[in-house]
Specification:
Tll0287-like_dom, signal, four-stranded antiparallel beta sheet, disordered N terminus, Beta-Lactamase, alpha+beta, 187 residues
């Protein structure tokens, strides 16, 4: 009886692992991209609202500054996102992401590829929808998704509207300020 119970438990465990692996094998690139973006978006919104906005704008304890290391300030939310993206890229997991904008303060954040340009145009025209496509870069195939980057607090608006290099100075909370381009390697 003990042997039967042990075998049954082993079979049950293997079935559970197999089911789990099959479930994971069925995750589409779009679903994976949406899940990764949900984490990125949530982390950025929490940092913006509960760290930068609170400490800089509400309690006036410390500022956020693009020269945060020299100024003993907080990194800007966009810088936090970029630093996270660089850490993920170093892990070589086949996933990359970056901020893009039609009105970038840093000109390196302009859309470059045809898919990036089409994605930025689409999310600006359809602010509640996401853009999905595939593209080949350097001989590698990618699933590419573009998501809206929305001004979630006054800190976002104030920084972009007041920055000397910003090509636009009339952002309001809730506006689409740009996009997050997320790529998943398909090969």
């Amino acid at each position: 009886m003990t042997t039967f119970t042990t075998k049954l438990a082993a079979v049950t465990t293997l079935a559970a692992i197999s089911y789990s692996l099959n479930v994971h094998a069925e995750i589409s690139p779009q679903r994976m991209a949406d899940a990764i973006f949900a984490v990125i978006e949530s982390d950025r919104a929490i940092y913006t609202k509960h760290v930068v906005n609170r400490l800089q704008n509400e309690e006036e304890v410390i500022t956020a500054d693009e020269h945060w290391e020299d100024e003993q300030a907080l990194p800007l939310p966009a810088q936090m996102l970029r630093m996270g993206a660089e850490e993920v890229a170093e892990k070589d997991l086949g996933v990359t992401y970056a901020l893009m904008s039609t009105w970038p303060i840093n000109k390196q954040n302009e859309a470059v590829t045809e898919v990036e340009k089409a994605g930025m145009e689409y999310i600006m025209a359809n602010p509640t929808k996401r853009f999905y496509s595939e593209e080949t870069l350097g001989g590698v195939n990618y699933f590419t998704a573009v998501y809206q980057d929305i001004a979630v607090s006054e800190a976002c608006v104030q920084c972009h509207n007041d920055h000397q290099d910003s090509p636009r100075d009339d952002f309001k909370v809730g506006d689409v300020m740009g996009g997050v381009v997320l790529r998943i390697k398909l090969d």
